[in-house]
Amino acid sequence: xxxxxxxxxxxxxxxxxxxxxxxxxxxxxxxxxxxxxxxxxxxxxxxxxxxxxxxxxxxxxxxxxxxxxxxxxxxxxxxxxxxxxxxxxxxxxxxxxxxxxxxxxxxxxxxxxxxxxxxxxxxxxxxxxxxxxxxxxxxxxxxxxxxxxxxxxxxxxxxxxxxxxxxxxxxxxxxxxxxxxxxxxxxxxxxxxxxxxxxxxxxxxxxxxxxxxxxxxxxxxxxxxxxxxxxxxxxxxxxxxxxxxxxxxxxxxxxxxxxxxxxxxxxxx
Length: 269
Prior knowledge:
alpha+beta
């Protein structure tokens, strides 16, 4: 089996972890597979755009990938980009912070900055010999994000349908005290991923389309006005934290509820 260091390039089981990178950022293996993307038309709290005219769509991901166990933290951001949360706040022309500390998720980052973080981290890891040829760090596609969030489930949330249990898995309006919280304090999903619901929304690679694309290795539109983010935030109600819910805004957006996490993936063929 191909490997770099002691860990195979591909995982051997869902949720297998690796942290063989300069930031010691932890990643969980998401195996290739097929899933239903979006939500049934009768799902409580459903919004338009969570599927196609018939409801959820079938997607097959032919390649497994490693998903960041946690959202990118303020410490990790500073190590790669050289700026602190106060600097990001100034760029956003904001007077307020909503959680500060090395293990809090970064926010006030736009889509281009999140993508630049991925590029810089990829280059640094390749130069250090810690990232195999043919692999890169990037934002997950919207399909990859939902697949990783669901971790084999078809329910409203990765843990089931009952939103009264959301507080065990997420920081949201009912328990956040209107602030981000250090990553990893809540229960993970079946594949070991934390904060897929709540804390901060997470930028995805895709441009936004009004309906979801299905098929093999589904991607969003090649160009559009808005970028996608997923997962809900500390400022959202349960409906907005569902696995199928979609957020979108201008790629220039710098918001106190939007951050990101990385995917470690094979580069395009």
